[in-house]
Amino acid sequence: MLGPQMWASARQGLSRGLSRNARGWASGEGKKVDIAGIYPPVTTPFAANAEVDYGKLEENLHKLGTLPFRGLVVQGSTGEFPFLTSSERLEVVSRVHQVMPKDKLLLAGSGCESTQATVEMTVSMAQVGADAVMVVTPFYYRGRMNSSALIHHYTKVADLSPIPVVLYSVPANTGLDLPVDAVVTLSQHPNIVGMKDSGGDVTRIALIVHKTRKQDFQVLAGSVGFLLASYALGAVGGVCALANVLGAQVCQLERLCLTGQWEAAQKLQLRLIEPNTAVTRRFGIPGLKKAMDWFGYYGGPCRAPLQGLSSADEEALRVDFSSNGWL
Amino acid sequence: MLGPQMWASARQGLSRGLSRNARGWASGEGKKVDIAGIYPPVTTPFAANAEVDYGKLEENLHKLGTLPFRGLVVQGSTGEFPFLTSSERLEVVSRVHQVMPKDKLLLAGSGCESTQATVEMTVSMAQVGADAVMVVTPFYYRGRMNSSALIHHYTKVADLSPIPVVLYSVPANTGLDLPVDAVVTLSQHPNIVGMKDSGGDVTRIALIVHKTRKQDFQVLAGSVGFLLASYALGAVGGVCALANVLGAQVCQLERLCLTGQWEAAQKLQLRLIEPNTAVTRRFGIPGLKKAMDWFGYYGGPCRAPLQGLSSADEEALRVDFSSNGWL
Amino acid sequence: MLGPQMWASARQGLSRGLSRNARGWASGEGKKVDIAGIYPPVTTPFAANAEVDYGKLEENLHKLGTLPFRGLVVQGSTGEFPFLTSSERLEVVSRVHQVMPKDKLLLAGSGCESTQATVEMTVSMAQVGADAVMVVTPFYYRGRMNSSALIHHYTKVADLSPIPVVLYSVPANTGLDLPVDAVVTLSQHPNIVGMKDSGGDVTRIALIVHKTRKQDFQVLAGSVGFLLASYALGAVGGVCALANVLGAQVCQLERLCLTGQWEAAQKLQLRLIEPNTAVTRRFGIPGLKKAMDWFGYYGGPCRAPLQGLSSADEEALRVDFSSNGWL
Amino acid sequence: MLGPQMWASARQGLSRGLSRNARGWASGEGKKVDIAGIYPPVTTPFAANAEVDYGKLEENLHKLGTLPFRGLVVQGSTGEFPFLTSSERLEVVSRVHQVMPKDKLLLAGSGCESTQATVEMTVSMAQVGADAVMVVTPFYYRGRMNSSALIHHYTKVADLSPIPVVLYSVPANTGLDLPVDAVVTLSQHPNIVGMKDSGGDVTRIALIVHKTRKQDFQVLAGSVGFLLASYALGAVGGVCALANVLGAQVCQLERLCLTGQWEAAQKLQLRLIEPNTAVTRRFGIPGLKKAMDWFGYYGGPCRAPLQGLSSADEEALRVDFSSNGWL
């Protein structure tokens, strides 16, 4: 079982409230939470019969608990949330909440296609212990998801959510970028505290930082691939799939950025790009889970239709880690 | 209430089993159903409070029943299925089944992201009266949805489905084309009877027709925009959003194609393109529902986050109909 | 040497002025040329030293002359025009003009990036014997090539051209679709007689046919892959790379379409798709030239940076022909 | 007239050979030039009659000469090179060479579609005074421009070029990204010294830096929009259209990055994004030239088909500058 003191001890050396946020964000001015920091988007472990393996989930959390994360993202894209039933989504969050120490943030993905379903899932996520929700853009009707529609959607969700809302744009999955003008408008909502942007266009991230600078609005990079660049441009953290495998290194990169050690940060950043691409764009969650198996976590199978890696892919995955000195 | 005799009378003049299928498909050779013909993908009517309005649904079905459709598609993209709960999806299909005559086909969308959920929804759809299921490609993890993954997915669904399966590729929504080689492999499955292709690339449709010619496999165009071309290349019908508004005209186009009146077919086809684009790509379901209101059906509002049309958009929609002589 | 009588004899059986154009186009009403028919976009033969081999060009033309083409396209994308100097472009057209009979049309590609250069090349093409020019959209600054810019460009070219102008949209090469509204505007210009559309979106082709129906404006399909569909929707011919290899078959497909033998047309169309894709999208001009070598023409090498096929690609190319009964 | 001493005085305070290159690149180890620094890609001024206005060119160069640039890029995409004849391309470079001091680098764009033409243009560029050439990827046949073809192309050019070669990838214009594996292979060529990457994907830029770290290979950002991020990841400079307008500010951003003043750099970077987007992606060269008119340079018209800005666009352009405090 993961004890609060383990998480606390993992946080040594980083006095977040002070140095972290170069943009002068301060809690207590109407918005409810400081989300700055690193988050692994935790995977959902499945047993061989495709059922959620809550025991393995707790084991993984136990190991992740030794690292100085700001919190955990549960039911992000990496969590295979589209493959879970509503009750599974809630149960996973509930279990994570139970074993997480209270000084960590639990960001739960609550996005659904309809506004109403998203509101209901958001409320339920709050009830099972989420500290904030991360709401992916609806996207099936992306041809009609213009700024106006998305502003209506997120405003409704934020109005009715008992906990803060984080916007979530992930075009590789959704085929849709949350437009900058919509983000700027939404940043003024008192219950919308920030955004996770997984698109990798740091000029866009910088523009969002710039145009929301008068709001309490925090931007998280959606991948370690562009984490250093995002920090350099005013982002305050990242949700990084690779942190499920190389969590210490991702946190080290954070620390190097926050303490202005940019040369060392650059060296580390460069060595993380290939393994990160391998566990995201190149081999997806099957690649991430395979790497987790190698690094002492439980990866295990994905739910269908996601397939396991071929042996050739597995070898290529290994090279992406070993050629950068991680294996 | 819609009586079977109304549907039957609507079918006058078309002896489908004989002339329809130029590719020589014959039922009873292992595959269970002839899907050739025109289908409106019915919309889901909502009341002002966003609840499904089953009364309006029945009214619409009553009017659609006067037309010589082969059947109805329920819970396609046009049906806003991603905005419905699982029980709503099933209830809508159940209601349609109750009021539809038995000689019409009820194709129900049962696609979900996970294979397991798709199987379960498929079985349930059969229980509430669907004659076949139309299964959209899973797509959230489209980077990993290669032919191998999709073949596994559809094979599993088809193996376990008590009713025939129709593949459904709709890249405008999913960002994913079901690869031709996967279609060819899947066409050999005894419980996979055909495909709806909404991509609009008729060269691809022709290639699929060509490479599945030795199978009992039928291709439906996913839009009236390329219906004539699809017939000319060996498709056997279409699932056409515009048929919710100009159903008689879409059926007339079918008849002209099936009876070889290509010049008249061309003239009609050309006049249907702009209104069709208007109620699909250009203005989406809100455009379709608005047009339904004009043409004696109940359109009504969409569920959020889909927004109603602006007055400027509504005017442009009207021009797309009036400039082609339909209003 | 290719004699006029050979070309004339090749045209047996097709009374083009009468039956060809279902849209009622008639020459002499202000526009200068009827472009209806099939054209091979001729390749530019290179010797081993990469110089243009004019002898081989004449040999190819001699063989093409036995087929009932409406004419030849010279300096289309298939002609590797971007790899030729201006004087080579003109010399090739001049040579083709000298050996072609005068009842055939010589459509010469004269597009350049700037309007001024396009005008100059157009005038020069007329001087060396082109009957009409085919002008590709400028595209390097595609972000600024909106309808207004393209209308200005083509209007200027058409105003100053001594010969008729054919618009040419080829998004696979240019990343740019000539917008439908620009086409409609340009169709009213007395010196713009038609368009070659290589995009493959037959709904778009149909829309262009429909919206220019009151003009003397003719649409050519840019590939045999969608030739039948284009005819069925009102196009009047095609510029077909595959006609450099299977010219008789492409002309046969034309005749079947023009004479309303749609079932036979469909069968032939389906067998042409894979070889066509092989010599265009899949293996490009190197594939086309390799196939020409097989079918009695001179293909030879491409200019660098285009590379020859690997032996694996060559084998795949062969299968695309043999599996459809052409080898 | 621009005197060498003006350029020299403009370079005060930056000892480039020492601190600039964090990656340890040192000249003299086989490669011939250190390209680290900032470059404006100079525009080509046209008179009202569309002729090149060499007088205005010299005036612009005079003003640019007061700024601490590493050199000038001539005939980049911003220079409207596709609209110039070969002799104009060379004459412009020759004129720039004549008025530029010898301690500045003149990088001349010499890319053409064919390898042979690129070689010839490269040799000619060297003859008229270019210090290095910047070679855009050939792209018209992008479907065949795989790594193998591009490696052949660039190797041939670099083998035959009397001056160093800089690779140039600009997908917004070409629709083609020079693949990372091709860059890595080409980085080993003794006459290929670096790359300009205009794609804006800094994860890709970082990966290129990382995988070429054992070569003398320098990466330049192709836009100021991601200049800070590129420096932070190991790039050594930038070719920045905005430097034609806000050259002092771009050089200041360089200095802040090179001296580790990342907070001040971030503030400046953020204010440069909107004006940069305005003069590149949003309004293109017409926007850049309009802004040059405002800032004391000669912008003037573009060659057709590029059109001037509408008054509404001009106003939006102005806001992008004024809202960031630059007007």
Report what the structure shows.
Four copies of one chain form a homotetramer. By secondary structure, chain A is α/β, with parallel strands linked by helices. The first copy, chain A, has a single domain (32-272), classed as Aldolase class I (TIM Barrel), CATH 3.20.20.70. Helix content of chain A is 45%, strand content 11%. Chain A has 14 helices and eight strands. Chain A has an eight-stranded parallel sheet with strand order 1-8-7-6-5-4-3-2. In chain A, β4, α6 and β5 form a beta-alpha-beta unit. Residues 1-29 of chain A have low confidence and may be disordered.
List its salient traits:
homotetramer; 327 residues; alpha/beta; TIM Barrel; eight-stranded parallel β-sheet; disordered N terminus; Aldolase_TIM (chains A, B, C, D); 4-hydroxy-tetrahydrodipicolinate synthase activity (chains A, B, C, D); DapA-like (chains A, B, C, D)
In short:
With 327 residues, chain A is α/β, with parallel strands linked by helices. Helices cover 45% and strands 11% of the residues of chain A.
